[in-house]
Amino acid sequence: MAGTVPLNVPRLKKSVSSPATRESTAVKWVLIVAAGLVLFWLIALPLIVVLTESLKKGWGVYVAALTDPDAASALRLTLLVAAITVPLNTIFGVTAAWAVTKFRFRGKGFLITLIDLPFAVSPVIGGLIFVLVFGAHGWFGSWLSAHDIKIVFALPGIVLATLFVTFPFVARELIPLMEDQGTQEEEAAITLGARGWQVFFRVTLPNIKWGLLYGIILCNARAMGEFGAVSVVSGHIRGETNTLPLHVEILYNEYQFSASFAVASLLLLLALVTMIIKSWLSRKNAH
Amino acid sequence: MNVTTTAAARRKVLPGFGLTMGFSVLYLSLVVLIPLSALLFNSTGLSWVKFWDVATDARVLASYRVSLTTAGAAAFVDAFLGLLLAWVLVRYEFPGKRMFDALIDLPFALPTAVAGVSLTALYSTNGWIGSWLEPLGLKVAFTPLGITLALMFIGIPFVVRTVQPVLEDLDCDMEEASATLGAGRFRTFRSVVLPELIPPLLTGFALAFARGIGEFGSVVFISGNMPMRTEIAPLLIMSKLEQYDYAGATAVALLLLLISFLMLLVINSLQRWARKTSR
Q1: Is residue A15 situated within a structural domain?
Q2: Do B196 and B175 touch, CB atoms closer than 8 A?
Q3: What does the pLDDT read at residue A24?
Q4: Are residues A227 and A158 in the same domain?
Q5: I need a labelling partner for A86 at 20 to 30 A (CA). Which of A79, A144, B178, B183 fits?
Q6: Are B24 and A175 in contact (CB under 8 A)?
Q7: Does the ipTM exceed 0.95?
């Protein structure tokens, strides 16, 4: 299951082939132009629309939308949630990848399937389950309200839902990478007298750093951009439990389209930066 | 050194199995497994009778029909478009190829809500494409067609990135042999190349389909959310929650989860098959 792609995929190597296995130049260019049009229509056009719509009413409205106190608090919340969830899931990803790839044990395939599970589950379900556990009618609902602890419709709920949907990203990136690298270098380090942590930081980490970084930026992009799961647990309290994607929705439903697209352009920037780092990393990885 | 001795030695040599395994399983249980089990062992008073009532409710059935048909149609179209994109990306050199490659991943990185509002603006009756299609009598926004387009946007990278590596590893020898035996280029593609690409195409289709069934953010804006017509299953969960109908929401979610598990099984066996045929 994939919600992501392995880093080593786009090699873009030059294809060497004899004339017999090539199409005529005309066919070639028809296909390239057709593919270009598909890409422009399906993917590039929606991006351009975000920018034109956000600037439709001029820079004044654009700047006002981004400096609005509610937008600023949504941005702060989004950054805070990512700052909590990304490190936690990174630590999990590294430890899980170590356990899965450096040892042999029964049920390894099953464990990997369980790690992938959040990718297969609808994000709305990812939010719903935390309402069922911590909500007013949930397992711990009455205990939590008796002790005046808020989880659902507050920061902890948003963090939990985000942890769930971004759970597999780092592990998923590292497991195939570390599987390929095997255990010989680590074993050599141990034989030479290195301790466990030294082995990890001196031998394993330098080998996996680009893959790890790629997993982290994908995890971060999803953590900042998650909509469905967070929407269920947030309660949409303006200035309090609104993340940036939810703020886009609220403005849109209030027919403040330009403001909504202005906030959306901020998230688009996040996606573009993610893509740029990704292509830089895969070039780095290829060398 | 043979395989069995390395396997035996591995356990002794490298440290940290207990620690990393223990932490992984604990964290997995806390964040994923225990919360998910809340769907099964819930306290919302969902009995079998109630579950059956909700599951066979006309509006619920309609939402599943909308979800399955739009996700299926989107994944089907994506399989063809994805094949074209992967082919061009692997086989040809052309200016702007690097940007072409980067754009394909964008639906992975773009927050779904942004895709949702943007596609709605594009296809609404006064949008760039919507205003073109309206005189032709074609309405996209707030119809199942709009949902399908949003899911095509979300699903296309899955097909391209599954087909691409297989296409890259494909040996040109077979194609040369086919050409020397007198087959034209199209015939060679159809009878030599395409059969090799069927497993990854099916995997990509299944991945895009599975993602489409659960998708929420990009669909909720363009669908218009009309019960019986354009209401998708994840949205129905949401609206049941907003009416504090926890039992109903749980029932719809359980069905959706069941479909997801089935898809996960299908995808896993497809991937195993793809790996076997590529060797």
Answers
A1: no
A2: no
A3: 82
A4: yes
A5: A144
A6: no
A7: no
